[in-house]
User: Fold these one by one.
Assistant:
Number 1:
Amino acid sequence: MVHYTWKPPPLREVFETAFGLPKSFGALDLDQQLGTMKDKANTYFGAPDTSQFKDGNKQDALIRLFMLRSQIQEIFSSTSKGNVALSLLRNTTLKQ
């Protein structure tokens, strides 16, 4: 019998993914990272501070946004331009 365990991602990764920040975001100055995170939190959730995530509804919204963006990233990373073109060509019918 195989047991699968799910390891939740680090909290920082949850916020970075949910806010649509690039992988290179961690290379920025810490003050700049903090400012960006606060701006994004304010934009998406209406307040810049992390205390808002004590509210279960805000936690759920953050998780949904994280899951959505994670799935979108997964789709785009697994689909090459060639595969997209080939898929489009396969679904095209030629008129004779």
Number 2:
Amino acid sequence: MRIRPARPAEAELLTGIAVRAKAHWGYDEAFMAACRDELTLDAAAIGWASASTVVAEDGGRVLGFAVLSPSTWRWVPPASAARRPARSPGVNSP
């Protein structure tokens, strides 16, 4: 398995994964319809400067994904809060 940056062309695939993962918990159709927009990934937003979307793949098959954003950096000492981590090579590149 490898972790790599998501590609904008994978937005529909990743949206499908998000919807199936949420539905797995038994939510009804009305709830799923209500949160559809929230679960939809936009191709233009993948790789956005302050959020990186990464996928886990095995043998070319996407297994899952994560959206990493500044809001996920919660546990940072106050003295370090103003500093941003170094950009990982390739994470935000096309």
Number 3:
Amino acid sequence: MDEAANKNISRAVNKAARWQIIVTVVVSVASLLLAGLNAALSAIAGGASVIVGAYAGVVATRGRVGASPSGVLITLLKAEAVKVLVTAVLLLLAFKFYRGMVPLSLIGGLAAAALVSGVGLRAVDDENNK
């Protein structure tokens, strides 16, 4: 993969992660104000699981992009599988060990971080098309 493609991918991942962190903090603060500390911590657990899962997917496939379209697709599917697995394990651990869990806040943080990652990637794509 050439240097320009690596730079674009790195910029996209950084922008998506930045948006995920911002939205997780916003949901956490809203949960804190509406339902208390346990709700805020639950929102952070939900958002953090998505962020860590996405990072694990990137790390697991870094430098392994094939030259053919099928190689690229397989690499993308591996990254997605790692992301989903890590996210699921982190959520399971949160449910198992955090006794003050507020499920609605956890889902809110999780959903916000997951949905916003696409927005961050789309913004980078728009910049590249200008």
